[in-house]
Every structure is written in C-alpha cells, then in structure tokens.
C-alpha cells in the first residue's frame, strides 16, 4: 500500500469520525461534559473503523492509487 493510499484512507477515516461525532453531539445538544458525549465519541469510532475497512478494500479492488472503490476512469466520467 503506497503512502498516497494510506494518506487517503487516513483522511477518509478522520472525516468519518469527525462528522459522525459532531452530528451526534449536535443531535444530543452539544453538552461536552456529559457521559453521552463520551458515548458519542465511542459510537463515532464505529463508522471510522468501517471507513478503514472500506479504504483497504478499495485499494485492493478499485483504484490502486486511492481508497476509492471505482476505478479512476469511471470516477472521471461521472
């Protein structure tokens, strides 16, 4: 796995974690001092972990230079 693909997977994983965490906090009322904020952080890790798996699969079967599932030629046509 190239460093470019690894950076792509890390970026997608962080984006999945941050957006899920912020979405859960906003839905809960943004109380960072509560136990539910800690639960939101733990729950947000699930989509982030799935993003790592998706990226690893994409780098094997999709575009070899990214974590995308579709080959580059199909993504450029869309």
Main beta sheet strand tally, sense and closure: none
Distance between the termini: 26 Å
What is the radius of gyration computed over CA atoms, rounded to a whole number of angstroms?
A: 15 Å
Number of helices: 3
In the predicted model, the low-confidence regions spanning at least 5 consecutive residues are none
Task: State which percent range the strand residues make up.
Answer: under 5%
The helix-and-strand class reads: mainly alpha
Share of helix among residues?
over 70%
The average pLDDT value, as a whole number, equals 77
Order of helices and strands: HHH
Count of extended strands = 0
Q: What characteristic shape results from the CA principal axes? A: elongated
Fold blueprint:
Blueprint (H helix, E strand, L loop, with lengths): L2 H26 L6 H27 L10 H6 L1
